[in-house]
Amino acid sequence: MSDEKRSDIIAPIQSSTDSVNVVEKVEDDGEIFKRTEGAVDFRTVHWIHTSVIFLKLIFATGVLTIPSAMYTLGALPGAINVLGWQFLNTYCALIQGQFRNRHAGCHSIADMGNLVGGKIVREITGVLFLVAFIIVAASGIVGVSTALNALSNHSLCTNYFSIIAALMVGFFASIRKFEKIAWVTWAGFISVFVAVFIVVVGVTQLDRPAAAPQTGDFEFGYHVIGNPTFAAGITAASTIFCSGAGTSAFLPVMSEMRNPREYSKAVNWCMGLVTAAYLSFSLVVYKYCGQWVASPSLGSAGPVVKKVAYGVGIIGLCVSGALYVHVSAKYVFVRILRNSKHLQANSVVHWGVWMGCIVSMTVISFLIASGVPIFNYLLSLAGSVAFAPLALGLPGWLWIYDHADYYKGTWWQKILYGLHVLLILLSVFLTIGGTYGVIVQIIDAYRDGTIASAFSCADNSNSS
């Protein structure tokens, strides 16, 4: 066995047709988007722009929910969860990118599922992808409607603000190419980063948390190690996992890169910055707010700072929701027009299908946002139902597919093979346990009034 193969861990080895049984071959020799005369060129995204898109896909929602999860788990287990999940999410993102470079016809995670498991796996993976990003798009709509509530002192019914938020998200999502939407993500990332930084500084200046009783004794709720129930603990862990698990959305962006070989560079920059920000920001907010952290956490430093933070961050919240709608719509768009001349043509069919996909994804996200209007529970639901198999289980399978001979290789290769089997089992546990936990939490929240009824005018922005 060659030295190259012995040293390889992440990068898939090119398997021969004799060693790997290809269930159904997808386009494997070239990119989905062709550079041909007369066709719209989608492959125009530089790796720096790719990094910013990745940052915006990951950063906006997670940093707003981790402090609440830390209250459930405690500071130490919460920090360990942040580091552990982010490491796994980064590793699995690199696996997906390396697999995609070996099999360039894979535009989405569903195409990868088709390659390793056939049509049934492709359809299941595609449904999970849509469920995941429709749910996180819904969380983006919740974030924007919460911002509008804060800035207007709840001058309208929350459901009306959700409609306005959905229209804003859908408008930005309709930008057709990632190259064009990349410029918007610069403003979006900066706005959310500055907004979160304002809150982090703001909470350190308060004598007591803004949401806590302002007179008399009160229970602060800061724990180094928490003591949650299984349902609460697995929901909190799923929330933290989900904060960095949207890596399957990287693949459609990769298909529009000028040089897909620079994908790993963009991933490493993105996930490194995200991990550092998540850990530092969430620990500070939890340290100064305890159990009185808001969800989303931009409301944790009092009404004045809350308005300032939401005023600065509303662009970023909107762009996040738009990116999630965009990647889900782009998946459906490519599935419909993949083998058609309209895929890269400025035709009526092209634009009709694209706008139809955008409208459909936006409407479904709005309905979910109105039905489950608490930020944390939306993300936990997405993490357990969809992101666990997409971000952990399937990447483990992809690695095994391209390293099938490791099962009978050296002892180190057998260990690597076994670790990726464990990765698949971990995804199964998180899917089952996390779904159970978040369903229990949602039922309890409706029972005790933490969540108002679906499509209610009540403001749930401070619920956790």
Q: What does the model show?
A:
Its main location: membrane. Keywords: Membrane, Transmembrane, Transmembrane helix. One of its GO terms (molecular function) is L-amino acid transmembrane transporter activity. With 464 residues, the protein is mostly helical. It has one domain (25-31, 42-210, 224-447): Amino acid/polyamine transporter I, CATH 1.20.1740.10. It has helices spanning 3-7, 47-73, 75-102, 109-117, 119-152, 158-173, 178-204, 230-242, 250-254, 263-289, 303-337, 348-371, 375-402, 411-447. Helix 2 crosses helix 11 and helix 3 (75-102) packs antiparallel against helix 10. The longest helix is centred in the last third of the chain and has 37 residues, at 411-447.
Taking all Cα atoms into account, the compactness measure Rg is 22 Å
CATH homologous superfamily title? Amino acid/polyamine transporter I
Number of domains: 1
CATH topology: Amino acid/polyamine transporter I
Enumerate the spans where pLDDT stays under 50 for 5 or more consecutive residues: 1-28, 460-464
CATH class: Mainly Alpha
Silhouette: globular
Q: In the CATH classification, which architecture applies?
A: Up-down Bundle
Count of extended strands: 0
CA distance, first residue to last residue: 54 Å
How large is the share of residues in beta strands?
under 5%
Structural class: mainly alpha
Order of helices and strands, N to C? HHHHHHHHHHHHHH
User: What's the overall average pLDDT, rounded?
Assistant: 82
Main location: membrane
Family: Belongs to the amino acid/polyamine transporter 2 family.
Protein name: Amino acid transporter transmembrane domain-containing protein
Transmembrane segments: 127-148, 160-176, 183-203, 230-254, 266-288, 308-327, 348-368, 374-400, 421-443
